Amino acid sequence: MATASSALFSTVVNCPSHAVKTRSLRSSRLKPTSHLLHFRCLQRRSSRVGASVSVSDPRVDTGRPDDLVASILSKVLHSDGGVSLEEEEHKQVAEVAQELQKYCVSQPVKSPLIFGEWDVVYCSNPTSPGGGYRSALGRVFFRTKEMIQALEGPDTVRNKVSFSALGFIDGEVLLKGKLKALDDRWIQVIFEPPKLKVAEMEFQYGGESEVKLQITYIDETIRLGKGSRGSLFVFRRRQ
Predict the structure, then answer these.
(1) 106 by DSSP, 3-state: which?
(2) What whole-number distance in Å separates Cα of residue 221 and Cα of residue 178?
(3) Which family, according to UniProt (predicted)?
(4) What are the structural domains of the chain?
(5) Spatial contact of 81 and 144, defined as CB atoms under 8 Å apart
(6) Residue 75 backbone phi and psi in degrees, to 5
(7) pLDDT tens digits for 60-80?
(8) Could you tell me the pTM of the whole model?
(9) Which of 15, 90, 100, 126 could form a Cys-Cys staple with 179, CB 3.0–4.6 A?
(10) Quick one: pLDDT at residue 133?
């Protein structure tokens, strides 16, 4: 249970480099031109030269990174972390994530954007976040309410899965870990034994666990990561 629980969101824990400071959350990625202004510009230009450009013309810059972010969120939100998606839908998510990798900032583990609170909105292995609580049998007894990951400078991660057991008993599983940058994209997280809180009771169980993951994309809205076993995670920044 400890290993499964720690895999939680650990696969996308984005490591803060020791040189990174938390005070800056500004992205280094340039914001793409909006569709409306861009196409109005194209229309004015085409009217002058007597040419026309179709909206579907692949040469038209459609602000691709933002479009891809919107696309992947539309596919994974309200999917219970990916549980309700069919095989073809998981494939579509993977394709969009692959495309987004092209726009990832350099050295993402050093980006201050990694800090803050994130909702775990998708995993290609839907039972990985939350471990046994999210397995087919676990979901019979435990209804997941929230899956949250908080990244705190300089090197702390806190994962939380809150649930309702049998429909009326509230509880949560907590994990605290330390981050270490392995290179510009890969990080390692070592988690303490998980804590389980149910009603007024709290106890620790299991042992330490370790995970490694690659940060494949990050911006002001989402964070993507791939675990050492290939699982894809999508995080959305909490408002």
Answers:
(1) coil
(2) 23
(3) Belongs to the PAP/fibrillin family.
(4) 2-17+61-237 (2.40.128.280)
(5) yes
(6) -85, -30
(7) 334 489 999 999 999 999 999
(8) 0.71
(9) 15
(10) 72
